[in-house]
Design the sequence.
């Protein structure tokens, strides 16, 4: 009699039902889908972050050029970069558009604003840097 109880206990808990397997597969699939979505979002975020870093470098490079220019050479108005659109090195043929505006602030200084714009996935982005300068590196 003891053997019959042992057999019945073993045979009743011998495996998983089809419904349990399907539920486990569904939960696993939802988890994998969430991980894949996070991965795609992370890749897109990294690409945008890289583009922002490149745009900041382009803005700073042009600002330094303008700040070291002789004061009398800083003509007021908006000037587009002659290489537009530019790449991350400022050469012709990239995704960035750079321009700068020089406004007379006083007789001894100019307000310089450099702007870089680009579009990623249909969304426009802009990086702008403004500074007062007296030319000649100050």
Sequence:
């Amino acid at each position: 009699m003891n053997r019959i109880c042992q057999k019945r206990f073993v045979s009743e808990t011998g495996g998983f039902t089809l419904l349990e397997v399907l539920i486990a597969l569904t939960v696993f699939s939802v988890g994998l889908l969430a991980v894949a979505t996070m991965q795609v979002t992370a890749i897109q975020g990294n690409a945008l972050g890289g583009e922002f870093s490149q745009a900041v470098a382009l803005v700073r490079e042009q600002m330094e050029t303008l700040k070291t220019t002789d004061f009398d050479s800083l003509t007021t108005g908006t000037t587009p970069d002659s290489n537009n659109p530019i790449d991350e090195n400022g050469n012709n043929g990239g995704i960035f558009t750079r321009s700068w505006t020089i406004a007379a602030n006083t007789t001894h200084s100019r307000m310089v604003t450099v702007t870089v714009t680009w579009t990623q996935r249909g969304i426009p982005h802009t990086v702008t840097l403004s500074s007062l300068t007296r030319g000649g590196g100050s």
